[in-house]
User: Fold these one by one.
Assistant:
Number 1:
Amino acid sequence: MLRDITLGQYYPVDSVLHRMDPRTKLFGTLVYIVTLFIADSVWAYGLAALFLAAAIRLSRVPVKFMVRGLKSIVILLLISVSFNLFLTPGTPIFKIGFLQMTWEGLEFAAFMAVRLIFLVLGSTILTLTTTPNQLTDGLEKSLGFMGKIGVPVHEVSMMMSIALRFIPILIEETDKIMKAQMARGADFESGNLIQRAKAMVPLLVPLFISAFRRATDLAMAMEARCYRGGEGRTKMKPLKYHYQDRLAYAITWGYLIAIIVIGRFVPFKLWIF
C-alpha cells in the first residue's frame, strides 16, 4: 500500500511534459484543479477527462503507474462517496433504517468520486514530470511578485519542494521500519481497521526520529556548501519559455474558456455545492 503512493515521486523519461518549463506545468495544474471545482455537468467532466488523458499521454508515464497511485486514496474515496450517497436529500431509491439512498445522492457521489480521482491524477502528473529543483525555481519565479510585499518567496518555494521530495523518502522509510518490526513478530495485517491503526502507532517514533535526522543532515549539508538562496543567486539552468510552453499556455486558456462556456450555456447542470 505504501509503495503505491506516487505523489512526490519523479519519473525520469524524455517527454514533452518533462521538457516543459515548470511554470507552465504549475499554471496548467492550477487551472485544472480550479476547473474541477467549477465543472457542473457531464460535458465539463468529459472535457476534463480528455485534458487529463492528453496530459498523461504527453508525459509518457505508464498508465498502470498512474492508476497505482489511486490505491492510497481508496479509504478517503469510500468515505466521501458514502457521505454523499446516504446523506443527500432527494428522491429515495431505497431505505434501510435511518440510511436512505437517493437519486440526487447517487449523482453527487459519482461526480465527487470522479473529481477526487481527477484531482489526484492531475496533481501527480506535476510531480512525476518535474524535479524538485525545477519545482523550486518554478514556484520562485511564479510567486516572485509576492516578494515585493515582504513574502520570503524563495524560502517558501524551497520548503514546499523539499516537503514534496520527502514524501517518497518517508514512505520508503516507513516500509523499511514495518518490515523490520514484522521480522520481530509485529502484526500489521490482521484485525479490523481500528486494530490496524493502533498497530501503526509504534511506527511513529522511529519514523519521526529518522525524519528529523534526515532534515538535520540536509540542513547541515546546505550550510556546509554555503547555500544562500533568494536575491542574487545564480542558476546553472535558468528558466526559459520555448515554443511548446507558449502552445501549452494557449491550450490551457482554451480549456478554461471551454469549461466556463459549458457551465454557462450547456444544459443538464449538476451543482456540487
Note: The beta strands are 92-96, 99-102.
Number 2:
Amino acid sequence: MKKEFFLAGMLLCLVVLSVQAARVDTVMVKSRSMGKEVQVVYVVPDKAEGDRAQACPVVYLLHGYGGNAKTWINIKPQLPSIADEKGIIFVCPDGKNSWYWDSPVNSSYRYETFVSSELIAYTDSHYKTIAAPQGRAITGLSMGGHGALWNAFRHKDVFGAAGSTSGGVDIRPFPLNWQMNKQLGEYAANRKRWDEHTAINQIDKIENGDLAIIFDCGESDFFLEVNKELHQRLLGRGIDHDFITRPGTHNNTYWNNSIDYQILFFEKFFGKQK
C-alpha cells in the first residue's frame, strides 16, 4: 500500500512539473517604421499563462553582430527554466547587423524605433507584462550590449534597468569593423555622426537614479578598455552602476556565465519595485 501511495505521489509530481514549463514562441512582429516583419523569440514563464496569469517583468536580450533572434536561447538553453524560476519573460529580437540604431543613412534600418517602441507595444499587448519601466530591463552581448545601453540611455521612460556584457560601448576605436559604416557612413568623413551614435556619449541623457545599470567585460576581451572608460565616465557623473570584470574573452562561454549575474541584478531591481 505504501509503495502504491509513493508511486502515485511521484506520478503527481511529474504531472505538475510537466505542466509548469515556460513556453518558447517564435513570432513575426510587424515594424511599421521599417515596413517589414521582424523575428522575435519569446520565453514565457508558466506564471504568465492561463486563466490565473500574473503580470511578469520583461528582460529584452539583444544579440551581437552576426547573430539573430535565436542567439540567446542557443547560448543559454536554460532560459526557459530560468523564466519559470524567476517569473521573468525574455524577449529576443532579430536586430540584424543594425547596432540597434535608427540609421541616418539607411532608412530600412530603424531598430531603435523597433526595440524601444514597436516591440514594447507588441509585447505588452500580447503577453501578461508589467507594462511600465519598473517592469522592463534590456541587455545584450557585444553589438547588443551597445544597443541595450544606447536604447536605455535614450529611452529612460521605457526601461528601468539596463545592462551590457562584452559591449562595444564606444564604437569609434573600431571604424573598419562589423559593417558600422553601412549604417553611419565612413568614419573619416562622418566623425560627428559617429560621435553622436556611440553609447558612451549618451550618458549625459541620464541622471543618477534614472536607470539601474550593470555591465561587464572579460579581462581578455578587445572591448575591455572601452568598458573601463564607460565605468570612469559614469563615476565622473556620479551615476551609480555595477561594473564587473572577470577572466574570459569574447565568446559564448563567457556570455553563458555572465548573463546569470545580469539576470540576478534585474531580478533584484524588479523586486524593489513591488
Note: The radius of gyration is 20 Å.
